[in-house]
Amino acid sequence: MGLGSFSAGLSGLNANAQALGVIGNNLANINTAAYKASAVTFEDMVYQDVGGSSVNPNQVGLGVGIASVAPVFAQGTIESTRTSTNAAIQGNGFFILNGPGGVSYTRAGAFTFDKNGTLVSPDGQAVQGYTTLDPVTRQVVTNGPLTDIVVPPGVLRPPVPTTQFSAISNLDARAATGDTFTTAIQIYDSLGASHVLTMTYTNAGAGAWNYALTGDGAQLAGGTAGTPPTAGCRPWTAVRRRTSPSRRLRGATAPLRARSRGACSMRATTPC
Hints:
Blueprint: H1 3-28, E1 38-44, E2 47-49, E3 59-61, E4 64-71, E5 95-99, E6 102-106, E7 112-113, E8 119-120, E9 126-129, E10 147-148, E11 180-188, E12 194-205, E13 208-214, E14 230-232, E15 247-248, E16 255-256
Antiparallel strand pairs: 1-4, 2-3, 5-6, 5-9, 7-8, 9-10, 11-12, 12-13, 13-14, 15-16
């Protein structure tokens, strides 16, 4: 038995010992937020020509080695942490952080606020994002520079009531006339209290639907408990636009509308 047989067997032990170390590290980080497991790729070593008169090469391998240890960027399981500042990414992408060493990227969303109200990672790097709101549309401006996300402690922003919403619903094209489907829509009043409205679709014939928006009468000024007032809309087939009547919530200082200066946009599609 030559020396090559011992070295080949020893290389196998060494390579698999390293692979077990990678597996052990994966198991040790099973509860680490956004940890990406690593996978080991083996490769065979060089071959030794042992001679011979055959036209086929007479070669003996000299063992095995580790070709690479690479992270597996597969989508992990998203779990609820019951912490409002924690975040997760579904699909591709990274969170952007800014720290003493400059900009870095991570998929670990275990963020918290520091004493100054800055959203930070566990190692103290500031989470970057868009924080400027358009003064007219009140939408986030996403074409500006990234900045630290800061919510000053003790400072409360006034609640913003729901003034408009849109809904895209997938309705069954096989429904018979008179069939109904419902979906819930959450809105907020001027005091920041949440309310749930019900959008009811009623089939009015082939390719035509009516819809009505209803809520609990006890939550509306002048309403009656158990008698849901209705903000109805005209029939539609593909896309129908109509402004809903104004409904003032009890205790709120601003009217609630299905959509201000326009209408709720509805879209009917057939199932795939």
